[in-house]
Batch of 2 targets.
Target 1
Amino acid sequence: MSLQTWEECLTTSIVDGTANTTGTAASCIPPNNVIALPSSYFQIGKVIRVTAYGRISCVVTTPGTARFQIRSGPTSGVSIFDTGAINLNIVAKTNVPWLLQAILTCRTIGNGTNCTFMGCAQFESEAIVGSPAAAAGGNSVLVTPVGVPAVGSGIDSTVVNQLDLWFTQTVATGSMTCHLYVVESLN
Amino acid sequence: MSLLNYNEVLTAQSQDARPIAPSSSISIIPDNNIIVLPNHLLYVGKTIRVTWFGQIWLNSSGGANFQFSIDLGTAGSTNVFNFLSGPTTAVTPLNVWTPFLVRGIFTIRTQGTGTSSTAWGIFQLCGIAQVGSSIPTVGGVSTSLIPAGATAVSNGFDYSVANWFNIRLNFGSTTTVYQNLQYVLEALN
């Protein structure tokens, strides 16, 4: 019983992404890992797994929020999956690890904005609000999107689309660097 | 759209490993699953996913720190990822097996001889044996990320030689027992 497809790794990073310290949204992966998927690559039922890992710092009391977006479109301008704002720890953290594991399934295809994805991601870090220190009780885990799950913004699946990972920390006092980025096509 | 490669399972454990209570570093997987990766397999960009699952037995109210490591090199003797302390807890149900899961992924960053091959990796540990964890009937179990502190590249190894791939464990207490039940090693590319 098979769909006669196979899993494949579409890209994997071998250098760090640019550190984001500005408090504004930007791609967090190395530019060479922003892959271009051919036109009509996305079909209904296509499943993509994104795994990313890095380090994050946040300041005491007013750490702001963190937010990841998987973006696509001809210029990576469309957020096809958004974790929503993740409250960060009010206890200062410096360069603690974070792990993001996301799965997206293509729900609809078409031109304009008709191609949509349902996504879910697990974000884990000591930098999540309320997380104990690693030595005192592990790291907190959030299943995102924060709030009500819904399909992301739509793209045009009939054209070449980039796939990118963006990050925003709402305050410029923090820092985030992506160390590892892996995209797999599961079918 | 492809790098013209595919995911493959390099090895999968199909029998229980022996229970171990090590006070020094010892392999947790069956000998048949300690595979030898050919020289030059671990080139830059190679991505490996590793998953193992087992059961842990605490029979000491003091708990114990435990420390996994992933070892490469001849006879798996080169420690590449050395997990920082993953402390068990004193309040975990004692004298009963509880499940424990580890999932990790790493990518080769540099390749070379001697100790100039390195990787970046992240590992997720999950089990009620971790300090501060709830029990399943009360709440979710604790997970933690390794490295626990500041992130860093792995220790170096030699990618130009055949490398054994092994998982080892070291307990801070010999009264704690671990038995591995499942182990899967995948190459993603």
Note: Chain A is about 0% helix and 50% strand.
Target 2
Amino acid sequence: MPEAPTPDDGVRRWRPSRRQVVVTLVVLVVLGAVLIAVWPGGTAQQAAAPATITVSRSNCGQGWTGSSSGAQTLTLANRDSSNADADVVAVGGPNNGKVYGEVDGLGVNTSQPVQVTLGPGTYAIRCLIEDTDPIMGPTVRIGGHATHNATAVPFSNSDLLAPLKTYQAYLATGVADLVTKTDALDTAVKAGNLALARADWLPAHLTYETLGAAYSAFGDFDGQINGGTAGLPGGVNDPSFTGFHRVEYGLWHGENVASLATVTDQLDGFVHGLQAALPKIEPQTVDLGLRAHEIMENTLRFELTGRTDEGSGTSLATADANLVGDREVVGVLRPLLATRYPQLSDVDTWSQRFQALVEAQRGQDGTWTPVSQLTTATRERLTGTLSQLVELLAPIAAITEPRRVS
Amino acid sequence: MTRGVGRRSFLTGALLGAATAAAVPAGAAESQLADGPAPAVPFHGVNQAGIVSPLARQSAFLSFDVIAANRTELTDLLRTLTDRVRFLTGGGQPAPVGITGPPSDSGVLGASVPADGLMVTTGVGASLFDGRYGLADRKPARLTAMRMFPDDDLNPAWCHGDLLLQVAAPHNDTVLHAVRDLTRHTRGAMQVRWRLDGFTSPPRPSGTPRNLMGFKDGTANPSTSDTKLMNELIWAGKGGAFSQPGGEPAWTAGGSYHVVRLIRMLVEFWDRVSISEQENMFGRRRDSGAPLDGNHEFDPPDYPKDPVGTAIPLTAHIRMANPRTAKTDDNRILRHGYNYDLGMDSSGNLNQGLIFSCFQQDIQRQFEAIQTRLIGEPLVDYISPFGGGYFFALPGVHDSSDHFGRSMLG
């Protein structure tokens, strides 16, 4: 029997979207900033006050008179009547347009320190006031010899449209393949051929797992097509437990053909539904960069732990498929990242290492080592290599987040 | 220009609600909890911090299996570890990353990282000197895998390891911040094999801190301020009155052998034992810590005056561990015991005990000689060693151009 669901096991089906979580956190952070600013004796009043720099339509960048290079704190204060973002940007020279620090979501009448390490050069504050074109503040000259912090030229939304289009074409092809393979699975079950059904289940499931459906990319379809038992009071017997893992449970637990046919018929319906809805499921440009590490975060959490395994023991096959989907995301972003992410080649190195380690667990006959049967040494290599890979993938989300620049 | 872009614009919209939320002061609770950071413990030196240093209040012991692909990657690992420990023990502002990545620091200690007395002690296990990294001829002469003693019940998942980090600080958040930082920067090169966190109790009410059996633990340590004694008992390859521990590779100078033993205490069973039986097993009074032939904690027991053990039984722990004879003087170790508390077991009993940690010049001459004398002592019915390992605590990092293990790899 599978383990009963536990609260911390989580499931893609019921989790709030990552974006909702981020919003909640930001509210808390901003609330904290408001408290600090208004509370007597708060940090803002105790700190030796460096120059406060204005963020506003009329006086963007006022108050920044420059300093010598090195680590410094710039306090940005929103003196406008609208919420704002603000960037510290190099102006002119070889680093023209590179962002050294940013404040995201600066509320009216709040201020926020931003840590930067500036090298010699000329800089300005870019004020991004809600519903207003970006405004560049006056240019400030920084002297000295310090080495600046890591920096990059931001992407605009339109920069990301072409990669997104390529990715959507990948999804469309993948979903079409998924439909064909799921039809075959359904046919095998309805014909009562359970040996063939088991053989058909794996390629169909793996095709879905190459689509990078992490964190609700497909809305409710992901839970219906590929959800687990977490969050379901009835566990494997819960009527809301549907999709590939439900079929897996039946196929590897001797379930009778009649009830299995109901389940595969339902799955096939969801898959066809996804294909029909796909043109309307429009990923945002911001999602691309997030997917780069989210796909493999899910692999680490759900597959290398065996959490989603309902009897087939193919978690590592899923990990292998997830990597295919992740490489597609990195691939479409590659032309943009090449000049902005120095560790892109490390991503490739660790991605290849992970692939080699995973595929070493596929036997001659195509069967996979269940996660529970891995030796300690092999498990550590798999988790360590994948953990290193997600560390290297994470910056892609930050770098490719679309930003307003002009 | 572009408007309404994904996450960014969405977040800005969330600000309106936040600004109207009510503010709640937290002054009273904060003043009760306030406990400022401790000063930095110097990182650079001939020896590592955390060996002859005073006991810290909080600690974590992490044993790693190194998965680095080759010797170059092992060197990179030790360099990275050095850089991170140097930063964490010195404190300061984490490196800003602009828009190029997630924050470089977890923020657990606030925007600026306080040094807070952090000490990270790095050791290597015998398994690091197998064929993988071409280090077989560099192995410290007295380093082996931890042996199984008759009273042990060792679980392989809690034993051994290629590399040990002892992370110690006055505050638990400082320890956990360091653990998170060190693992974040080394994921592709090593993975945690086992980890156990420990704490030192405050003096109750005075003297040496107590273990979870209620007894003061560590009263009879050799004096760390006695340099000659430390050379005789603690530092590898140093000579002295007792022996000449030759045969050590030159790179080991400044290092020390580190034994860690994870010892479960069967505290419920212990609590059902009479006080006289408890005190006879240890050889000390529970309340004062005094030896059974003395009045105060630091009174030395006088075994020659008590040859048959009418005051302190011949089987008492303190008497078997350290008979205080000329012959056993070179067995002495520098012990740092940390209490651990790890939830419950399947019988509904508390999973508690001791992280026994000791440094010495020669594991066989010191820890193993003591542990061999203790085989079958009455206390073994109430404790169960289940894990740990033998390690060699590396020489100190001398300066900003040095790194952990440089002399070992060079």
Note: Residues 1-48 of chain A have pLDDT under 50 and may be disordered.
